[in-house]
């Protein structure tokens, strides 16, 4: 009996040694240590890279995305990252909210990916390999009646690409794109899917509380949010019907449907706060009561940059 | 026991009947009956909006709470006030909004149960255009537990194109319907369209 236990322990030690050895081998083979860092770049680097794209021709993969308008849209996003706009009545808010991160922290990485996918129809971003469906390639650039998104073909391409690639349980019954699906569950984003996209694409560290149905139950949300804003970005998953008062029905299902990036929170008095957030292509400042804030927030993602070798 | 069953059966029938009742049909008649007030609201809003962009509405169905969005180049401010609250006037003055004009607009909107008015951008051949979007709360009987329906009017600056069924088209040659907030709109006249929607904005 004792011999059996010893054998198991020896086997575990052997397996552990092998793992460590293979890890070192992989690191030495690439010639550099394995790093776990959030990639960063500056707006100046991104604009310099964009200035060199003088010979971009029409893509065979994206027949409805004109190269001139594509580049114009990318330049707008780099010069004014807050202007990225999810479009009216679409379900692209989650994708627009996560775009805030690369457009501020790694615009060069975002640009390289966008140009790669435009030219070759496939590309890698972070841990994800994108090879979009034919339907997406034909539809990008054709969306209309969405406000400014109509004239932003690169944003259409980006949002549709993400919706096509990442799937959560909300997309279970509508996985294939059909015209008009940008307003439907095909494009919907649940809280876990949002966090997964941010981790896999941009390699941030995320601490999240809350869920798709149950609120985080914070005693003092103002203190919690203020503290975390000092150290990183905050994405909020909120009930849009309440935030924008989109209907007056008494019987409402309290579910979150909208992602915003919280930029600031200031106490006005004991019961009132001023929140500044980004959504729909711009900043909004709104005065709300603390109880209202508790009511609308279902998910909070605290997103911080990983430094070298951080776990 | 038998009486209770009858009551439950009666209640079920009433609910079933209620769910089948069609709402007061919003037609071109409504527009023509209230044309003067509606176009007055549209014109006032356009004039005031040109001075400083904003959106205006009521956040309750008793029309006692005003919700205003003040739009600047860098940020949008959202405020909510009780209709006679002094803070409302103070805020209008603080942001250099035409206070008298907006107060008159609020009263005009309240008189006709107009819940929301704003300016919407849209694009035709990559050219930016705008329309005035107005939603009205119907005065028809409210059916319990049923979602609210709103009558939406859109006012264009230029004449629009419609198909043979009176549905708003994107362009004359392209037989594609122009949807706003995912709704199909119908013709009232060359520049005004309507729809019935579950969303008022």
What's the arrangement of secondary structure elements?
The complex is a heterodimer of chains A (311) and B (201).
Chain A: H1 2-30, H2 43-51, H3 67-79, H4 93-105, H5 107-120, E1 123-125, E2 128-130, H6 134-139, H7 153-165, H8 191-202, E3 204-210, H9 221-229, E4 233-238, H10 240-243, E5 258-267, E6 272-279, E7 282-289, H11 290-296, E8 297-305
Antiparallel strand pairs in A: 1-2, 3-8, 4-5, 4-8, 5-6, 6-7
Chain B: H1 2-20, H2 28-33, H3 35-51, E1 54-58, E2 65-71, E3 75-82, H4 86-94, H5 99-111, E4 114-124, E5 127-136, E6 150-156, E7 179-180, E8 183-184, E9 186-187, E10 192-197
Antiparallel strand pairs in B: 1-2, 1-4, 2-3, 4-5, 5-6, 6-10, 7-8, 9-10
Helix pairs in contact in B: 3-5
Task: Characterize this entry briefly.
The complex is a heterodimer of chains A (311) and B (201). With 311 residues, chain A is α+β, with helices and mostly antiparallel strands.
Keywords:
heterodimer; A: six-stranded antiparallel beta sheet; globular; B: 201 residues; 10 strands; 32% helix
Please explain how this structure is put together.
The complex is a heterodimer of chains A (311) and B (201). With 311 residues, chain A is an alpha+beta fold. In chain A, 41% of the residues lie in helices and 17% in strands. Chain A has helices at residues 2-30, 43-51, 67-79, 93-105, 107-120, 134-139, 153-165, 191-202, 221-229, 240-243, 290-296, and strands at 123-125, 128-130, 204-210, 233-238, 258-267, 272-279, 282-289, 297-305. In chain A, helix 2 (43-51) packs antiparallel against helix 3, helix 2 (43-51) packs parallel to helix 5 and helix 4 runs parallel beside helix 8. Chain A is globular, with a radius of gyration of 22 Å. Mean pLDDT of chain A is 89; it is low at 18-33. Chain B is an alpha+beta fold and 201 residues long. Chain B contains five helices and ten strands, in the order H-H-H-E-E-E-H-H-E-E-E-E-E-E-E. Chain B has helices at residues 2-20, 28-33, 35-51, 86-94, 99-111, and strands at residues 54-58, 65-71, 75-82, 114-124, 127-136, 150-156, 179-180, 183-184, 186-187, 192-197. In chain B, strand 9 and strand 10 form a beta hairpin. The longest helix of chain B has 19 residues, at 2-20. The chains are: A alpha+beta (311), B alpha+beta (201). The A-B interface holds A 88-89, 144-145, 147-148, 150-151, 180, 183, 244-249, 251, 276, 282-287 and B 59-61, 67, 74-80, 115, 120-123, 126, 128, 137, 145, 147-148, 170, 176, 178-182, 198-201.
């Amino acid at each position: 009996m004792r011999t059996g236990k010893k054998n198991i322990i020896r086997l575990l030690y052997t397996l552990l040694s092998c793992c460590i050895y293979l890890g070192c081998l992989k690191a030495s083979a690439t010639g550099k240590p394995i790093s776990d860092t959030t990639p960063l770049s500056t707006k100046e680097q991104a604009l310099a890279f964009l200035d060199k794209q003088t010979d971009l021709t029409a893509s065979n993969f994206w027949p409805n995305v004109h190269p001139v308008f594509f580049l114009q849209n990318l330049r707008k996003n780099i010069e004014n990252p807050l202007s990225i706009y999810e479009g009216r009545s679409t379900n692209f808010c989650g994708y627009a909210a996560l775009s805030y991160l690369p457009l501020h922290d790694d615009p060069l990485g975002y640009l390289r990916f966008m140009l790669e996918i435009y030219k070759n129809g496939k590309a890698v971003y972070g841990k994800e390999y994108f090879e979009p469906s034919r339907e997406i390639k034909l539809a990008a650039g054709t969306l209309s009646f969405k406000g400014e998104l109509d004239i932003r073909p690169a944003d259409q391409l980006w949002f549709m690409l993400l919706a096509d690639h990442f799937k959560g349980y909300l997309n279970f019954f509508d996985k294939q794109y059909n015209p008009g699906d940008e307003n439907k569950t095909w494009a919907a984003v649940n809280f876990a899917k949002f966090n997964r996209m941010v981790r896999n694409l941009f390699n941030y560290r995320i601490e999240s509380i809350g869920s798709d149905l149950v609120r985080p139950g914070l005693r003092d949300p103002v203190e919690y949010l203020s503290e975390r804003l000092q150290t990183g970005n905050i994405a909020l998953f909120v009930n849009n019907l309440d935030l924008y008062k989109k209907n007056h029905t008494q019987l409402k299902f309290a579910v979150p449907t909208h992602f915003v990036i919280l930029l600031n929170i200031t106490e006005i008095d004991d019961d009132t706060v001023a929140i500044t957030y980004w959504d729909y292509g711009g900043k909004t400042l709104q005065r709300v009561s603390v109880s209202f804030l508790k009511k609308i927030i279902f998910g909070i993602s605290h997103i911080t940059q990983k430094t070298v070798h951080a776990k | 026991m038998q009486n209770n069953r009858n009551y439950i059966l009666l209640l079920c029938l009433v609910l079933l009947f209620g769910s089948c009742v069609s709402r007061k049909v919003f037609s071109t008649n409504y527009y023509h009956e209230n044309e003067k007030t509606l176009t007055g609201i549209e014109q006032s809003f356009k004039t005031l909006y040109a001075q400083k962009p904003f959106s205006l509405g009521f956040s309750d169905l008793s029309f006692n709470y005003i919700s205003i969005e003040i739009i600047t180049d860098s940020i949008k401010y959202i405020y909510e006030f009780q209709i006679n609250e002094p803070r409302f006037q103070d805020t209008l003055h603080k942001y250099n909004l035409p206070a008298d004009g907006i107060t008159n607009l609020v009263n005009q909107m309240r008189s006709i149960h107009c819940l929301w008015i704003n300016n919407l951008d849209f694009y035709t051949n990559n050219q930016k255009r705008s329309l005035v979007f107005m939603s009205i709360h119907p005065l028809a009987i409210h059916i319990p537990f049923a979602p609210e329906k709103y009558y939406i009017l859109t006012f264009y600056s230029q004449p629009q194109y419609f198909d043979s069924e009176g549905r708003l088209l994107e362009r004359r040659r392209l037989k594609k319907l122009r949807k706003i907030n995912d709704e199909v709109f119908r013709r009232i006249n060359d520049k005004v369209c309507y729809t019935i929607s579950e969303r008022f904005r």
